Automatic annotation (TrEMBL), chain A:
Residues 7-231 form the ABC transporter domain. InterPro entries: AAA+_ATPase, ABC_SmlMolc_Importer, ABC_transporter-like_ATP-bd, ABC_transporter-like_CS, P-loop_NTPase. It comes from the Bacteria. GO terms for molecular function: ATP binding; ATP hydrolysis activity. This is Tungstate transport system ATP-binding protein. PROSITE patterns: ABC_TRANSPORTER_1, ABC_TRANSPORTER_2. Keywords: ATP-binding, Nucleotide-binding, Transport.
TrEMBL record, chain B:
It comes from Tropicimonas sediminicola. The chain crosses the membrane at residues 30-53, 65-85, 91-116, 156-181, 201-225. This is Tungstate transport system permease protein. It is a multi-pass membrane protein. Residues 26-222 form the ABC transmembrane type-1 domain. Its main location: membrane. It is found in: Cell membrane. The keyword Protein transport does not apply. One of its GO terms (biological process) is transmembrane transport. InterPro entries: ABC_perm_TupB-like, MetI-like, MetI-like_sf. One of its GO terms (cellular component) is plasma membrane.
Amino acid sequence: MSALFPVVLDSAETARRGQVLAGPVNLTLDGQGICVVLGPNGAGKTSLLRLMHGAARLTAGSIRWSCPTPQARRAQAFVFQRPVMLRRTVLENLAYPLRIRGVRRREAMQRAADWAGRVGLGGMLDRQAPVLSGGEQQKLALARALIAEPALLFLDEPCASLDGRAMREIEEILLAARAAGTSLILSTHDMGQARRLADEVVFMLHGKVHEAGPAHDFFNQTATPEARAFLHGDIVE
Amino acid sequence: MVDLWSGLVQAFWLVVTFNSELVEIALRSLRVSFTALLVASLIAMPLAAILAVKRFRWRRVVIAVLNALMGLPPVVVGLVVYVLLSRSGPLGVLGLLFTPTAMVIAQVIIIVPLIASIAHQSLRDLWQEYHDLLISMNVTQMQKVTTLLWDARRALLTAALAGFGRAIGEVGAIMIVGGNIDHATRVLTTAIALETGKGDFALALALGFVLIALAISVSLAIHWLSRTEREGSW
């Protein structure tokens, strides 16, 4: 499973129309537990996640997984900040990743129903996904990402614009996934969430990795003044 | 006004007496247009989906041409198909001129751009919505196409109905390639043109009302069957 890690980013950079969105990034992650990517808006958190996932173009440098890249891509899933709902029922949304991998319909539906129950959507299997509430949609997106049992799950601010209860439910699912051995890379600018979840922290600023290390060290003995200011809730520019 | 009224009355009687000639040409109209719709949809909808998901060099040009071809003059299409199918034309050996098949071919050419353009419009919007997710899930090009076509099926229905409307109401092309031959290629629209030419406005109007009623009932039937316009469903 975790033949994916360690992953090594060597001067990796993604740019669009000549404008660098993130990078150059030098970073090595060993995929233990939950890695939280922190930083102010526009620091390049989303771009870094997309770059690692292969959804953004690598314009310079390299990203090396411990297995061939196509294989690594197949073992990953991504949850977007604004969940993308297929115009189908909850059950069909959950079954979709299995169906495209060739799992037979009956089995896919059974596993989908099982996962719906796990994330608390068991009572709304036949509802159309796009009419669900924000929190329900995010839980559905999360379950849909986890159903194919990825080795690594990216989450781009999964709890932005969710209330406390929805956030707690989502964090419980994430912790369960970690316990099941899934590596998670999660971006957020919610300090509380970072403290609750992080095993490892990557602090980003101006498209670059400013500081990276174990969460305990980062929160207790921050190395750089910018990160310290960010931790204290000051505005970092 | 008298003509309109007597047309309505005549239409009523033609329908309630189940006039055999009317039934024959109405059924032929439906058969030709439905066949054309089926063939055209099989071409246009996958084409629209491919245009939505695939990035290739001439994509914009193809889309622009398709959009322009929506306004293709049926008479010209009829003429071209006529030349192709005529005895001395390249496809003359098939002996298709003045048959319903020739009419289907002409109508397919007319409605493919229409269906493809309308379908592309909605598939493109849906693709924008789905893009990140499907890319992230590593789906194949084929799976993208089928996913889009399935999830946009309600919108595609509208595209198909527009195509059907254009096909069943079309007269210029099928008149030329079909020839309006009694019991062979006469359909509602060509019959209307004929009766108008003969000066029988009442009968022409009657056929016209039947045509409109037919188009509306087909649309209603399809909408009802596919249960569109229900809240929260596509």
